[in-house]
């Protein structure tokens, strides 16, 4: 038994998709979430800046003595290889678990990846999927506007603007026959109903946050690091900027009010 919390971080609100999955799959685990709302988005930044931000996010979570750290961020998982390789705690990104799931799901070996510019340019999913299935064709499309849609809570299925933007992004993937699409940024699962509607029911969507949560559960079980079964799990949320809409959007994304559990913390300050 290990009662230390799980640390999860992202550039903003997107990582709440991973938090939601962890809450469902690991209901006895305490969670510390850090959303770097002051510096979102990461996907348009240079690799050097992404490495710097990731290192600072990790160091923030390490102050809580986390037993496992998850980068619920496709950009960090794809680009910040130095910062994530130096983590002493068990670490999970989203690229490897999502790649495994996509390789299992595809029927025709054509896999699409929707991600930030940094994620797509890194070729991280191409490399990872090639290790699993060398015959797979991996198609990537950069979708920078989707992060903005989520951060502004434009995620309703009947949102015309969101639907039209998604059509533009997803057409190159479906036209080339992708039967499986990785939602390569944890913001994107919040738009999954619209993406599924546009792509069609025959296309399998891979939720990166969910796959990372499944891997976290496996790691904790195998290492006998799960929390006590009678633990009343708690989650606390830290943000680096006092965004006016964080609580409201988080309520929509998580399905519950967490306004009393959110703390503003300047990333440059120690606890």
Largest sheet: 6 strands, parallel
Number of helical runs?
Answer: 12
> What is the strand tally?
10
Distance between the termini: 26 Å
The outline comes out as globular
Mean pLDDT: 94
Task: Summarize the helix and strand pattern as letters.
Answer: EHEHEHHEHEHHEHHEHEHEHE
Give the strand order, joined by hyphens, for the main sheet.
4-3-1-2-9-10
* Whole-angstrom Rg: 17 Å
Helicity range: 40-55%
Relative strand content: 15-25%
Q: Would you identify the regions where 5 or more consecutive residues have pLDDT less than 50?
A: none
Short description:
The chain is α/β, with parallel strands linked by helices and 271 residues long. It has helices spanning 16-25, 47-62, 74-79, 81-85, 95-105, 117-122, 124-132, 144-151, 160-175, 192-199, 208-222, 246-254; strands spanning 6-10, 31-35, 68-71, 91-92, 110-115, 137-142, 180-183, 204-207, 235-239, 262-264. It is built from twelve helices and ten strands.
């Amino acid at each position: 038994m290990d009662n230390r919390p799980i640390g999860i971080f992202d550039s903003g609100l997107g990582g709440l998709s991973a938090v939601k999955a962890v809450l469902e799959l690991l209901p006895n685990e305490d969670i510390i979430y850090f959303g770097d709302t002051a510096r979102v988005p990461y996907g348009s930044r240079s690799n050097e800046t992404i490495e710097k931000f990731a290192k600072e996010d990790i160091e923030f979570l390490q102050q809580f003595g986390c037993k496992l750290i998850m980068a619920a961020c496709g950009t960090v998982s794809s680009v910040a290889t130095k910062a994530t390789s130096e983590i002493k705690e068990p670490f999970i990104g989203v690229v490897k678990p999502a790649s495994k799931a996509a390789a299992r799901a595809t029927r025709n070996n054509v896999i699409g990846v929707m991600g930030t510019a940094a994620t797509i340019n890194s070729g991280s999913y191409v490399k990872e999927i090639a290790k699993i299935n060398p015959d797979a064709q991996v198609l990537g499309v950069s979708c920078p506007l989707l992060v903005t849609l989520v951060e502004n809570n434009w995620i309703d299925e009947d949102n015309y603007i969101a639907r039209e933007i998604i059509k533009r992004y997803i057409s190159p993937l479906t036209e080339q026959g992708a039967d499986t699409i990785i939602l390569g940024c944890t913001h994107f699962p919040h738009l999954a109903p619209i993406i599924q509607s546009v792509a069609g029911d025959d296309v399998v969507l891979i939720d990166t946050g969910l796959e990372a949560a499944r891997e976290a559960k496996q790691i904790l079980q195998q290492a006998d690091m799960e929390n006590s079964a009678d633990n009343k799990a708690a989650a606390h949320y830290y943000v680096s900027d006092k965004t006016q809409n964080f609580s409201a959007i988080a309520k929509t994304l998580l399905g519950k009010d967490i306004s009393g559990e959110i703390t503003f913390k300047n990333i440059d300050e120690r606890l």
